Structure formats: C-alpha cells, structure tokens
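Each lists sequence, tokenised fold; shown next:
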Amino acid sequence: MPRGWGLSAPVRGEFSLSTTDAVYQPTGWLFLALERPPLLEALQEAALAALERHLDRASFDRDKDISRFTDDERASYERYGYRYTGAAYAPHVTLGRTEENTALELAGSARDRAGLPRELVFDRLSFYVMGEHGAHAETLLEHRF
C-alpha cells in the first residue's frame, strides 16, 4: 500500500496512521486529526452501508440546532443521526475539552508544546456504542490485527 495514503500495511499485527495537527472544534474540543487515506474511507463507507438499515431514525434528535453545521455535516446528521460521516468524516483522536480560548490557543501550539506524535500505531479495530460526547459506552465488535 503506498505510504502516501497515510496507512501502513499491517506489520506484526499493527497498522499506523499519520497525524496532521491539533484541531479546535467548537465548543472547546481539541482533537488530534488523522490523515484520511482511501482505505479508511472505504472502511467507513462499508460500515455505514452495513449498519444503515439498523439505524433507529425515530431516535434522531430532530430538534438539535444544526445551524452551525457545514452542508456536509448537516447531510450526515440528517442521514445517519451523526455529524461526521461521509464527506464530513474526520478521523481523529479526542484530546479533550476545555474553555474556548484555551482550546483555540492549544490547537495552534499543541504539537510544539506537547510533542504530539507524527504517527499513531493501532493494533485493533473496534465498533462500539457511542455514549455521551462520543465516548465509548459498549464494545460491539473488536478485531485485532
């Protein structure tokens, strides 16, 4: 697999994704953004295709304020009940949440201040039930590489 894709072929049961930068997301969230290689996009598309018929659309929060969403995020939310799928898919590692000004300042300086890694190595893929604020609530399936 070409290294330019950001995803390394499995070696010793692992694969790696290149990081891009620390990113601010309102309100007060700080993420470590990951590259979005074609293989990861294809995995996301396959997962959505397999799970779409199981979605409980009646449970989608239709009163949620989506006025600040981009067009892609709005389309994702309307289709899947989640903001970041399809064109709005944003692979990341959540670093945390803090006061707005602090989050903005950290997004601009986190790599220098904290020595954020240029690459992250993964040894498994898991599907989970999303809890409050996107947190892991329950593992549905886990695959070790």
In short: The first strand starts at residue 15 and ends at 25. The chain has a mean pLDDT of 84. The beta strands are 15-25, 29-34, 92-97, 119-122, 124-130, 136-144.
